[in-house]
Amino acid sequence: MKAKLKNYFKQKLGGNYDLIDIDSLIDSSLSYAENKERIIEECKKLGIWQEDLSIKQEKALSEKYEKEQEEILKEYLERENAKCVKYAKSIKEGFERLEFALRLLKDGFVNAVFVKGPAGIGKSFFIHSFLLREKVNFVKFQGEMTVAYLYRFLYQNSDKIIWFDDVGRLLRSARSVDLLKSACYSEFPDGKRVIKKGNYSPEQRDLPDSFIFEGGIIFSFNRLQEINEDVRALLDRGVYIELVFSQDDIIKIMREIAKGDKEKEKVTEFLIKNKDLVGHGKFNLRLQQKAFRIYEYCIKQGLDWKQVLKRELEQEMSEVQRLVYSLIGFKKVRPSAFVKALVRPKGWSKRTAERRVNEWLELGEIYSDGKEKFQILSLKPF
Q: What CATH number does residue 361 fall under?
């Protein structure tokens, strides 16, 4: 406590710090806040206390800051919304449904929106842009979260829209799912959504045993590892949207994004022409943005951007495709030879290797020539 108080008053009093004996004024039976107030009163008596900014000054500074932030936000929204229009233009139906669901949530007609879709199609960007454009009071969370922290997080943001972005692991815990179900649905006639603690660890002593959640939930993810009955019950408590786009859809969006910029159009067309070099699930809008940056770098450095970009595209492989490449490269092989190549390094049985090969074929990680007999497999499309 002494160290904290000394540091505090050193900052406040500067050169006058030595004019007061803090040690003699501290009362060990009082709290830090009480001791601080006690010493401040003594400083005022001695005429050495430095008052903070007046309320008028603080208000003026606050208003200036808010005005600056509004201008920054306005410029940001104008820029980002223009991009959103481009994103939505070629796949209007998909994003219109998402926007409709977000409006239902914003206006309080539903308590949760669940959005599933592959990476790199712009779903997180679209959600973020909507929340900013509509000036929604929201908080975004990404990363790992324990059950105890989830309860605290819901409590601290009980009046906001909480956006859980790509945290599918949260749904692996039955207790986490129970908390989220309580946040999304009321079992009481008055419609109040009551969340109960259910965990009385020392870290939660400062939290109430229960509270009413009045906000909303957005859950966006690329995939869910497991959809059991509890998770399905949670999804049923809100609007569930699955965004499914074909490669042709992605190509349309890419062209919309690049439209009007000759350099970006040139890079985009090169990207589309060489799409077969890219691994499964990697041909998306993130790749397009990466390609733009590579092009700019190559132009500045005087490099052949087509060669550099082509080399980078070949490296855009999934974990499965990197494994396949390490075993057979871009060669075409028969299934029996491929299974044999998998068994030794992975330590799998022949049956396990055959099952994995069939799974990868279904997912598009590897390709087949389509012949029932004497089939040939390859990392690249035939």
A: 1.10.10
Average of pLDDT values for 268-289?
82
pLDDT digits (tens, 9 = 90+) for 102-150: 999 999 999 999 998 877 777 888 888 888 888 899 999 887 777 778 8
Integer Cα distance of 281 and 359 in angstroms: 15
What pLDDT was estimated at residue 215?
93
CATH of the domain at 176: 3.40.50.300
Whether residue 269 lies inside any domain: the answer is yes
**How many domains is the chain partitioned into structurally?**
4
Mean pLDDT of 20-40: 71
Contacts of residue 81, Cβ cutoff 8 Å, sequence gap at least 6: 129, 133
Query: Domain check: are 36 and 178 in the same one?
Result: no
Residues with Cβ < 8 Å from 353, sequence gap 6 or more? 339, 342, 343, 346
